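User: Fold this; tokens only.

Assistant: Input:
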Amino acid sequence: MIAFFDCCSGISGDMILGALVDAGVPFETLRKELGRLPLHGYMLELKKVKRAGISATKVNVLIQKKAAKEACRQFRDIEKIILDSRLSPSVQEKGLAIFKRLFQAEARVHGKRYTGIHLHELGAIDCIVDIFGALIGLDILGIKDVYASPLNLGSGTVRTEHGLLPVPAPATVALLKDVPVYASDLQFELTTPTGAVLISSLARGFGHLPEMKLKRTGSGAGGKNIKDRPNILRLFLGEPVGAGKGEEKVTVIDTNIDDMNPQMYEHVVAKLFAAGALDVYLTQVIMKKGRPGTRLTVLCRDEEKGKYFNIIFNETTSIGLRYYRAERKTLPRTIRTVQTRYGKVNVKVAQLDGKKEKVSLEYEDCKKIAEKFCIPLREVLTTIR
């Protein structure tokens, strides 16, 4: 199951909770799971509301007065709450990483170390509940991948512990590096720091609604009821759609380069693969005026293309590129370990028509054998075959 958040009216922690509950997360189950946190002094409130005539779910975190006074926390306080909880290790790990990003963003804004920062709004109980409620809700729904639209940030100013700040707030800006955003004419904060850190931490990509077989939808309400537009966060849940077994839609990115030191290509290719590219390759080409050049080609998932645009522009001399949608078909494959005269070697086995197999040796394993036994690599490949 994949999830897509339509952030046309921004995104916040309570909007995410509302959308998840509206899409099928049982409210009582969510409340019970949040009870695994050693956190007191709050209660969850569930409401059905309308935003510009559209029905949506509103989940509020109501804080007791005494607990609100104790909301200011440092990172070590949040870390202790997380590690002392009875949540699953995976949810603990994700939550800890998200809060660390929050503290680091605030630290950059104020020029301090994140371990010395005291967060007021972001260290409050409702922030903790929003973040872990989102992680728990996605886990309950069985969501494997999260995607989102570009984020509407709003405009104007927002009042914080540090006074009146411009929208987007500085911490929000720090959290949204490399995320597509835009401002609307609405004079208030639409994307909050909590919403920003959650979606930027969880989303695999930003763009249009990915192709899916739609199963469920949900709408989470924002705090304000805007007359001429629904202040809601829409959530789409579905199964990814493929053209057939082993087929998928991909994006191909091309750029021709004739003015870069060839030694740099190794670094660029490695960085693209490390970012998750499906394939990267170089082609020798003859460019205008008979100049020899290199075509750099990247194969990636469409919703992630922006990430590779940034790497190419930052790491090469390219000032322009082309990209287009394509389809690819791959054979189902598995990795097997076989025993040879030189020891164990991994082989890649691809299934052809469900009967025949294509077998290829893992090059790195063969290379290690050649180095270990001081024999030619060609001999290792020939012998094992």
